[in-house]
Fold:
Amino acid sequence: MIKKFSLAILAFSLALTGLFGQTTQAATVTWKSTDSFWNIGSNWFPVGVPGLLDDVIVSPQGGVDTYLRFDGSTGSANSLVINSDTVNTIGFLQTSGSLTIATDQIVGSTGTGSYMLSGGSHAIGTLTLGQELGSNGSYNLSEGSLSVGQEFVGTNGGTGTFT
Structure:
């Protein structure tokens, strides 16, 4: 009887470990469109709109200048990198809505990138414009609200511009 009871407790413990021991993993999510909107799941790889735990990478697609548009939606990510290592440009255009980046947003990590905020709200843990030698990152705030914990403009030989 005691042996059966012990086995039942062991089986129950293992089942709980399997159910509650799993954690949600952060994913690296990459932009795969040339000119479209953040809130369309098919614009991302893997398919689906990024979430709070995701690390997001935005770069030019299809050998052309690329624009990611953020209009009238609510979005979040753990981190966001906007960068082009090619002759093609990458621009992030936010005209409304609310975007929260929990940790780091880097515009121009090893190449170039730009972020334009003309409406809505944008909250970032740490904003870096132009992170590495030869990189160039720009942020243009014309309307809307920006909340940043820390900001670095031109680090490690990079160039940054905040307007």
User: Anything to note?
Assistant: The radius of gyration is 20 Å. The chain is about 10% helix and 50% strand.
